[in-house]
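Usage example:
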Amino acid sequence: MQPLLSIKDLRISFRSRTSQFAVLEDFDLDLQKGETVCLVGESGSGKTMTGLALMGLVPSPGFISNGAISFEGREMIAAGRNRAAEIRGKNIAMIFQEPMTALNPVFTIGEQIAEMLRYHEGLGRKAAIERAVELLRAVGIPEPEQRVHEYPHQISGGMRQRAMIAVALACSPQILIADEPTTALDVTVQAQILDLLEEVQERLGTTILLITHDMGVVADVADRVVVMYCGRKIEEGPAAEVLADPRHPYTSALLACIPRPDPEATTRMKLLDIPGIVPAASARPAGCAYAARCAFAFDKCRAERPPLFEVAEGRSAACWLASKEHSQ
Amino acid sequence: MSKEAEKNLLEVKDLRVSFPSRHGAGAKRMVHAVNDVSFSLRRGRSLGIVGESGSGKTTTALAVMRLVEPSGGSILFDGVDLTQAKGESLRRMRPRFQMIFQDPFSSLEPRKRAGAIVREPMDLLGIGTEAERRQRVDELFARVGLRDDQKLNFPHQFSGGQRQRIGIARAIATRPDLVVCDEPVSALDVAIQAQILNLLVEVQEEFRLSYLFISHDLGVVHYVCDEIAVMYLGKIVEHNDRQSLFRQPLHPYTWALLSAVPGRGAAGRQNRIRLKGDPPSPFDLPKGCSFAQRCPFAQDECRNVRPELRAVSGGRRVACHRVNDEGIGPHHEFGEAVSRVEA
Amino acid sequence: MFSRNGSAVAGLVILLIILFTALAGPALYGVDPFAIVSGPLLPPGDPDAPLGTDGIGRDILAGMLVGAKASLIVGATAAALTMVIGISVGAIAGFYGGRIGQALMRVTEFFQVLPALLLAMTIITLFSPTLTTVAVAIGIVSWTSVARLTRAEFLRIRNLEYVQAARAMGARNRRIIWLVILPAALPPLIVTATLTVGIAILFESGLSFLGLSDPNVMSWGVIIGQNRDYMLSAWWAVTIPGIAIFATVLSVSLIGDGLNEAFNPKLRER
Amino acid sequence: MVPVSALARNLLTSIVTVLAVIVFNFTLIHLAPGDPVTVMVGEMGGGDPELITRLQQQYGLDRPFAEQLFTYVLSVLTGDLGFSFYYNMPVLDLILQRLPATLLLVVSALCLAIVIGTALGVVAAQRPRGILSHLITVISIAGFSAPVFWVGIVLIIGLASALPIFPTSGMRDVTNIGAGIWGDTVDVAYHLVLPAFTLATVYLAQYSRLARSSMLEVLSADYVRTARAKGLPERLVVYKHALRNAVLPVVTIAGLQFGQVVAGAVLVETVFAWPGLGRLAYESILRRDSPTMLGILLFSAVIVIVANIVTDMVYRMIDPRIGARA
Amino acid sequence: MTISVFSLNRRRFVQGAGLTAASMMLGGLPEAYAQTKGGTVVIGHTTLRHLNPAIQSGQATGIPGTQIFAGLTQLNDKFEAQPYLAKSWEVSPDGLTYTFHLEENAVFHDGKPITSEDVAFSLDVVKANHPFGKPMFGTVKAVETPDAKTARFVLERPHPALMSALSPLLLPILPKHVYGEGDIRENPANLKPVGSGPFKFSEYRPGEVLVLDRNENFFRPGRPYLDRLIFRITQDPVVNVLGLERGDINYLPFALVRVSDIDRLKANENLTVTTDGYEAFGATNYLEFNLRHAPLDDVRVRKAIAHAVDKDFIQNKILAGHAKRLDGPLTESSPFYSAESLKKYELDLEKAKALLDEAGHPVKDGGMRFSLTLEWLPDANINSQQPVAQYLKAQLRQIGIDIVLRPNPDFGSFATRIGNWEHQLTMNGIWNYPDPVIGVNRAYLSTNQKKGAIFTNTEGYVNPRVDELMIAAGGESDPAKRKELYAEFQAILTDELPLLWTNEEPLFTLYDKKLQGLPLTVWGALAPYDEMHWA
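Running the assembly step on the lines above writes:
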């Protein structure tokens, strides 16, 4: 089946006065219709940049230095031309971490939704507002007829994120990129928003690319998970399988270092921690970027960068330990 | 346990913190950020306060530190009422209670070198001689896992985790009895978070510290704390030891909170209670239970009469009309709030 | 190339030249600016008076060189006064807030409501135009914006965690205000201070133009004020000091702009 | 739109401020050596001590200070700003007669500056590293640095001798009296060109700088990224989403500057002999016409207050976040 | 306000001028020519307080005031009274009764006839309110009104100067029905005057413009020639010069223009520049010593200062040759000026230093002997006050006197300080007027030290002999004897130097060459412009 969206060999570079370095490298990803894919990783892993690249919104001084993105078989990046603008908003929508700052404070919620409809679908002012009310109702905002005339600061954080989702869904996009949509929210609200995304997907068949650092969120919503580290994909696979049986030492360490409320625990077990810090994008080692922090690293890891090995049906990991010769 | 350890190091009674606030264009009103909060903490133990934003947990911490002015109640620290201490007498107490802040980027003065930052509380509070202070800084650097040469670096030259290590070193420099930790790991990546949590637990044991630990993350609180108080809109709604709180949360809110923690997979999400809406604003608190609007089990009584924090069987404390004296509430029919993580 | 730092450097160079002129000029060109050296209104290029003479035959070049000092001193003094009053009021209002803060902000608003130039003119008329009165008048009417800026910065920084940390460590208020918060608030204040010097020089020249200056002290403004009526017959007598004022203010503005860019990474990045 | 209570509070503070201004000004002016009667008698051509005494009595200048102050405050509260010693007419009439000229000058200069300045700033912010941006920055710094009266003088010198196109003084051609509304408008507009341009130079510099920096800040805001993510064309992103936010500080400064309308115009009115309030203020200060001085100082303060209130209302209309700038 | 602060009061007793009631028609001559009628003249003018010359002295109100209001008589260029509103008059032999017969057809601008009631009313107003009301009309006991067109002035004692005070400037005839109500100082008609002169009020915008239109019902048939007078108001010399050069201003009396611009304007072929018409004013400029103040009480110090001043430089450079130097209390045009009696002080710095040494003021550290504060009249006599003050600062430095300039921002501060003798040195100037009794004596009479009053003997000069001379000269009717008395007066003063006279103050009139019929008589521009016309 042809993927809805396909990223091939994507590379995003940053140029400074003195040097140029990549923040995302050799990145491949296929999104199928209706699935939820989680991009997970620590800050600086390049996950947000991937989302922005799909929108054609890589911020200066960053730029796409290599690779191809095709949407429904159409090349979006070809011959140096970025056609992302044509599908942005209409076919691919994005929501962000901070609903407070992501909504324009000086326009009403309704205007911000209606604008999409008026621009992309040529609706009249009145019709657009009516549709906005419907959208607000659909994302679970009570009393949408009133809310539509309110400003972002007048509603709560959870409502804002719902409104943001309504904006994103206005033109029924095939793909919704959600960049840490719940990080800034309280845990009870976070659950509501995740529920909403799930519901949206069921109803509209939207493909969701969810960017998060929270393995718990991955466990709850993801069909497929892509683990990123230092601008590279290091593991990919169905979420349940990856969480249950991570093949990359980083993935397993990431899972192990999260403290979880465990009613059965009587004594405190020391948390596993990953020593050291993520190397800066401008100073990445020649071999595996994780080698310096990895408990299992050996010489080859430090010398040579491991490619993605297919470890099972639909699963891959970029670790020498996952290579065929090693597993044998 | 020794007798001394039995004694409460910190005893907060009916603490109340109000701010004048001009909400919107309306007239000035008092916002009760913390409303009749009472708890106690024994030496060497840690008490977690969890809650969502606006619950008053950070304000409680700041009030204990005397960084915000309480408008009522008392804070007995080792028998001395801190709310009555002012100026010099308060300063003399300060070495004994210190604080670790949330944001490792803004809690260190950007123009000071790391060594000076760690030394500062000793300088300000006049602890030890010149040489002793220098030696203490060396010890602390080693203890929190920083290199000696890093003493001369400025905060911006450190990563988030390293900064938080500096913050910890600074907080324990005066050999305090109590350390108030205000969301010490919430700004950190998970891998680093684990490093810092481990460090916190280590130094607590090593220096016999008491922690008043503020967090919104149940996992973190579970890891660090012996007892946990759950706050909702300025009030403590449940206060329990760790195990019983996680095993059988008494208050429907606690239960909802626990069930909302992601990570239980699709199956785990089926039986959780969906709370409607966001917490109400502290500007106009409802008459009865402040959770009543969002509580799926609320009855008329809940909406009209404010429940007090009371003890139920097993010494557990809860503020809910619907929970009976055995500690059974309507939500317990729904089964466990938290199951083991599948991963 | 016209880089942002480039213009700041250009500003610095101009300012250094002006400072050098102010310090060394009178010694190098030993003409008394008050002495009548020739006939009035000689055009520039005369061997006796390279920049011409004014309405009564005084050497404009000498006046320019000697006058630089007074103009710069008035500008600097007024700016210093503005900053000192503004920072003190703003710092106290921002740090303590509450009643004290409210009261101080009321005072600030009150001064803001008064029309600056008119008030300065009134003060100077009432207390006779000396360099001191002029500087004080400028200071009195222009500190309010500094106070507001300082207050805003203090309100912001006061809540930063390291300030809380300093209090938790038992630092006294005075220490927190002057040694913890103020240094953090300095970048925008330094920029403002730089610009204030320029504004004060402009202000002084405006007052001089209206005749409100001390005729005993040669300054650029005085030259303009005293030769204003001659402008149709002797363009140089007003244009040349005007250029000097313009260059000085331009130099400090460029420096201020450069500092602003340097302190404000948001502007720099993009 | 604006809550009544906020407006009421504003008004109350304003009244207190106005009272404070009256007392302050009155006290300040009475600290002055010499009294207006001396000036008046001098202006009349001299006079004997008897006349001086009589005039002092007539104007109440022989009473104790507190009584004079009290009388003054009372009469101001009833809308009477006093009688000009010099111009021999009620101060309020005098002010109202001069006000239109000043308003015309300042408002045209401000509009010119706001529109052009903001446009320049927005253009500069879009390509912050471009040559155009640098040029605009340097020009606006230069405009800010030039003494306004000097710009006026240079224009007069240049245009009077070299290129006598525009009139260099006054607001009307005096022989044009009775030219009818249309003729008068053209005449005034013609006279307005140079002074308005001069005043606008200074304002322009501020607006382009302000607009540039606030636009730069806004362009990096999250909601601008959202607007782009919505697939809106750059035109809408910049001129709708960004500009509406970036214009907020411009409104604030415009309000402040409009408040300083009288003081701001003194120099330009003096240079171009523009018959406005600024020049009246200058003249009344020099003539020690204290009722007029007091009247203008008070009037200016009221303008500032009104401008603040209006700015506040405009701000509230553009920026719905109420109390955001408390 | 350049000139108005110098009061016109010195005109009030025009003694010595023939006061016969000659009935030669003023302007009889121009009537012979066919005049161009119509047209507008733009007059450059200074700011003014209001338009009622009955309660306001000075040319600012006076120039337009004389156009709006008619008076009983007018003076010709020989100081002789000519009929104006009064077509004829008789003086009783004892000199105590003056009977005036008014023009039958004279009406006010509002059409109401002018009656003797109005004359009586106007006299009362002037007497009570004009700064010189008492000196001018104090002796007028009553104005009787036997009929509507006859006014009879009854005097307490003879008052030979009365006739010269009856000009429209000094006794404008106000309509009682307009000005009779309420306090005259706050009468709205002060700003919208109703008179009976050749021009009537049309429009006034303070600080901008005053427009007067032809009075169609003027009682002199065929007059005035012009349709309209526009007074363009400014205090800015630059605006005046530009206005003249561009042809925006046609007539600029008491020109508020810098001397440096005069040559420019002289070169302009469309303009005429003249100093005529100001001879009788005798405007002076001098450095005033406050003799109460040491070391200025020492004549050696004053002489030293005199020797440090180069009056030729002031005359030729600062004033660009447009004014004469002044070596004594009287201007050259005065009939009592006596060049040979003057003691002149030429520039001699060495002598000046020697005098100061002798007076016990050695050079101290910093090269200075002592310091003195010098003030000047702000905003007045722009051509000589401040420039000469600055010149003095530069000059006196050379003999070791440090001059601190003290600008008084406004006339009030100046008048208060000087009037109360708080100054050390000040630039000052009085107008001499044709007779020293009016303009000169007041500055030197020891009895005329009136604390608080400006333009009196503010320097504090006391010399009984000088007092005697002035009093004797005032009572002497033989011109030759008077001249002798004044010669001694000048000799003593120039020897004792209570003031250091520096120069005569230059006064100019500038006008468009095509403008004719200008009043270049003794009253200068302060006369009706009913004959002014375009060529």
